[in-house]
Specification:
By secondary structure, the chain is of the alpha/beta class. The chain contains eleven helices and 18 strands. The protein has a domain of 216 residues: FAD/NAD(P)-binding domain.
Length: 401
């Protein structure tokens, strides 16, 4: 390892690895790249603990476009990330998302979101109760007023495969990765000049990228900066089903989508099992090392909602559970990407609020363009820049699960 790098990326999850790949793959960037990752097992990384899904059903056009690009990369991932003949397979299940609405406010939001999605050419349809019942006969739909279904460009995939593919390709192109921790930064006026590692070393830097997930605020504070991001706990459950409804759909070759019930409970197939979760009743920030599952959510929230929605979900049994962290942007639930206005060589790539995997490709490309060219060349991410944090101006995303 050298003592100076053009770019130091704090965090080696999917966001940091994506930034490294896009920099290393850009022929116009000829600098040195270092990823510093504190957890060599990635066992507590949001990447590895997520539900690893992608959707275009957002309320903001910029988020729709970000996911459309992410879907393109996921579909072509093996070819793009090939290293020495090894083509990573993300095992993408393009089974769509299904949002259900049962009251006037939920219907209004679905219709408004659909307009944003249509403006970007997303393949999403709105269904009446009868159309929903025809497509998914296992559902009880008497209380449903409207449904929104993604016919293509949505599904789920291998989460660690995305991260590992980006990182392996970046390394093959010259990026370096170390398992260490950035514990301090030296700021000289309007720039960061050095970072200090837990191992004792000090590295001179050209640009620092904050890609530290739920620890984003801790990393920013080392530079004397703020970011409204904190860890919020989400518990996921895997359950077996005595009478599985998978295969009963009359669309998508019988495959069920990821369904979001009006209660907020979501469920999707996971091999021969199902994966499910829900927004917690109370959602405080938690300690960075608190990964204790909220076991009670299954019996108290999830199972009653699922059993009411489908006869197939009346007899189910939990076979596994774990908790992960959302890097939750308390300002507006949206990603923050771009430089600090007063410390121009400190770039944020934070606050994804549960959407980091699907937004990783576009974020990596965008950050690489900022570093290489000083501005965006493809998708303009200015709307989600840091300036709105300074101004206290939310850019709300309504479709947060």
């Amino acid at each position: 390892m050298k003592t100076a790098y053009d770019v130091v990326i704090v965090g080696g999850g999917v966001i940091g690895s994506s930034v490294a790949y896009y920099l290393a793959a850009n022929p116009d960037f000829d600098g040195s790249i270092l990823i510093v990752e504190r957890d060599p097992t990635y066992s507590q990384a949001s990447t590895g603990l997520s539900a690893s899904s992608i959707r275009v059903q957002f309320s903001n056009p910029i988020n729709v476009k970000i996911s459309q690009y992410g879907g393109e990369i996921i579909r072509n991932f093996g070819e793009l990330m090939e290293v020495d003949g090894d083509r990573p397979d993300l095992n993408f299940h393009a089974s769509g998302y299904l949002f259900l609405a049962r009251d006037a406010q939920q219907v209004r939001i679905l219709r408004e979101n659909h307009e944003a999605q249509k403006s970007c050419g997303a393949d999403v349809v709105l269904w009446s109760r009868d159309e929903l019942a025809e497509a998914f006969p296992h559902l009880r739909v008497e209380d449903i007023e409207l449904a929104s279904y993604g016919r293509s460009g949505e599904g789920w995939f291998n989460n660690t495969g995305l991260m590992n593919g980006f990182r392996a390709k970046a390394r093959s192109l010259g990026a370096e990765v170390i398992h260490d921790e950035v514990v301090a930064m030296r700021r000289e006026g309007g720039r960061i000049s050095h970072v200090t590692l837990a191992s004792g070393g000090e590295i001179e830097v050209g640009t620092v990228v904050n890609a530290s997930g739920p620890r984003a605020a801790k990393t920013a504070a080392m530079a004397g900066l703020d970011i409204p991001v904190e860890p919020r706990k989400r518990t996921l459950f895997v359950f077996d089903c005595a009478a599985s409804p998978e295969g009963s759909a009359r669309v998508c070759n019988g495959r069920l989508p990821l369904m979001i019930d009006p209660t907020g409970v979501f469920v999707r197939p996971e091999g021969r099992f199902f994966l499910t979760g829900c927004p917690p009743v109370e959602d405080p920030g938690v300690d960075w090392d608190d990964f204790e599952p909220r076991y009670e959510e299954f019996e108290e929230i999830i199972w009653p909602a699922l059993a009411e929605r489908s006869e197939g979900f009346e007899a189910i049994k939990v076979v596994n559970q774990w908790a992960g962290h959302y890097a939750y942007n308390t300002l507006d639930h949206n990603l923050v990407v771009g430089p600090h206005p007063e410390v121009g060589n400190f770039i944020f790539a934070n606050g994804f609020s549960g959407h980091g995997l699907q937004q990783g490709p576009a974020t990596g490309r965008g950050v690489s363009e900022l570093i290489t060219y000083g501005g965006y060349r493809t998708l303009d991410l200015s709307e989600v820049g840091y300036e709105r944090v300074v101004e206290g101006r939310p850019f709300l995303e309504q479709a947060v699960i």
